[in-house]
Design a protein that fits this description.
The protein is an all-beta fold. The protein has a domain of 56 residues: Immunoglobulins (Immunoglobulin-like, Sandwich), CATH 2.60.40. It contains no helices and eight strands.
Length: 97
């Protein structure tokens, strides 16, 4: 199968996110993201994007099962994975301050 494509007749899992998250200026906020995998599925990489004006998206962070996390500037030191180890089915991040 081609990465990113689901073969015909196969069902993919479900991504669960909050419709909205309330944050307080100056405090940390958790941005939840959970993938409910189907049998034999494994999450190997998650990419967080920040949507800007006009629908333009910028890469914020990449969580990779083999290579760990990589956070883009200017978010280095401010974006952390909530569960620092283990499977990526729970890919929530903490945005500091």
């Amino acid at each position: 199968a081609v990465p990113g494509w689901v073969p015909a007749g196969c069902q993919a899992g479900v991504v669960e996110v909050e419709r909205s998250v309330t944050a307080v200026l100056g405090q940390d906020v958790v941005l939840p993201c959970r993938y409910r995998a189907q049998e034999q599925e494994q999450v190997v990489q998650v990419t967080w994007l920040k949507r800007g004006p006009g629908g333009h998206s910028a890469k914020l962070a990449v969580l990779d099962l083999q290579h760990g996390e990589h956070v883009q500037e200017p978010y280095a030191g401010r974006v952390l994975r909530r569960a620092p180890e283990g499977a990526l089915e729970d890919s929530a991040i903490v945005l500091r301050n």
